[in-house]
Amino acid sequence: MKKICWLATGGTIASRPSENGLAPGFTAKEMLEMVPNLKDYGHIDCYDIMQLDSTNLQPEDWQYIAGYIEKLYEQYDGFVITHGTDTLNWTCCALHYMLENLAKPVVVIGSQLTIEEENTDAKFNLNAAFAMASSEKIGVFAVCGGQIIEGLWAKKLYSEDMRSIQSINKMPVATFEGNNIKWNEYENPQVNGIFKVHSDLELKVAQIKIMPGLDSELLFNLAKMGYKGIVIEAYGAGGIPFAKDKQRDIVGAIEELSKQGVKIVCTTQCLFDGVHMDRYEVGIKACKAGVIPAGKLSVEAATVKLMVDLAKK
Ligand SMILES: NC(=O)C[C@H](N)C(=O)O
């Protein structure tokens, strides 16, 4: 029988009405009692490690979650983390980069309705998550709306729809239908070493979204505030404006800041296909100025990667 660790962090799934609206309240044990068939997937131990709406989750909370997995790693075959859907993909990306040589499934799952509401998606999603956590697949996965997604490619697209989290730029790993996993193509990654947690994060990383009229002073001020990394959400294939006017010359600002050692990574405002910065003048000039293209990574994935990479140096 598989041993599965349930780490509860809060989110809508565990919420109940309060005088200020929905707020986390149910423990993992209470949720397990509402979906008793989850025990069919294996022996489950419950840990209530935090009770947060995921809006309130901070990078220190990723470190806390990763620390729990590190502490309990040898004791379990798989991990299920119940979590709010709002920042679920951030936590997935953080765990993806923080857990090196992970050789077990870590499944992060949320729901759009609370577990006690009529027609809730919580029970279905929990079934999919525990089925995945008791499988032989390796990696960090997000579960939502009948899909099992590689966590690195997960993104919340709908604020209300039950299929709120979707897989971007990658096929979902599997679908969950009638209590069965239907696999798409997914090859387990090669694991070539012992499991290790990179808990250090560089917190001085910011995001800037390119917009018409953006003032380059914003970037210079970030550097003055001690920021070591900036993730730019550029246009289209990775277009960043250059101009004669210094105030509007974002590429010029990037060049100066790169020379000062600030790492600047470029993602796109487009949801699909990533950046292709070798095509247009507005991309090639930015690369010459020192920008690092993020490929197909989402802005969240690129940001967390930068936080982990900068902390390693
Ligand atoms: N559906 C949800 O879980 C949303 C909630 N605000 C959260 O992220 O915690």
From TrEMBL:
Keywords: Hydrolase
Active site: 12, 85
Domain L-asparaginase N-terminal, residue spans: 3-185
Enzyme class: hydrolase
EC number: 3.5.1.1
Domain Asparaginase/glutaminase C-terminal: 204-312
InterPro entries listed in its UniProt record: AsnA_fam, Asp/glu_Ase-like_sf, Asparaginase/glutaminase-like, Asparaginase/glutaminase_AS2, Asparaginase_C, L-asparaginase_C, L-asparaginase_I, L-asparaginase_N
Positions that bind substrate: 54, 85-86
Entry GO MF terms: asparaginase activity
GO biological process entries: amino acid metabolic process
Family annotation (Gene3D superfamilies): 3.40.50.40, L-asparaginase, N-terminal domain (3.40.50.1170)
Record's protein name: asparaginase
Organism: Megamonas hypermegale
Gene behind this protein: ansA
